[in-house]
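Hey, quick one: can you model this chain's 3D structure?
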Amino acid sequence: MLPIVEYLGILAGTLTTISFLPQVLKIWKEQDVSSISILMYTLFCFGVFFWIIYGMILNSLSLILANSITLFLAMCVLFLKISIERKQ
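Sure thing. Here's the predicted structure for all 88 residues.
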């Protein structure tokens, strides 16, 4: 059984992680990345990667899961930014 604090972390992680989904879907649908900052998303990805490492050190399931999914979604935005701009 997980400690109550982990459930709080899972809830917080779920909410902040799914907040990236509309951005990814909007970019995918509209193919418009003009307002996306490649520097911001690159720095963000590095930060999230270190949150995953931190979660592993603490053995915190909520930190590891939420940040792994967030990193995947942020990397999708970066990938779309780069690939769409290359096409244009």
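One thing worth noting: The mean pLDDT is 92.
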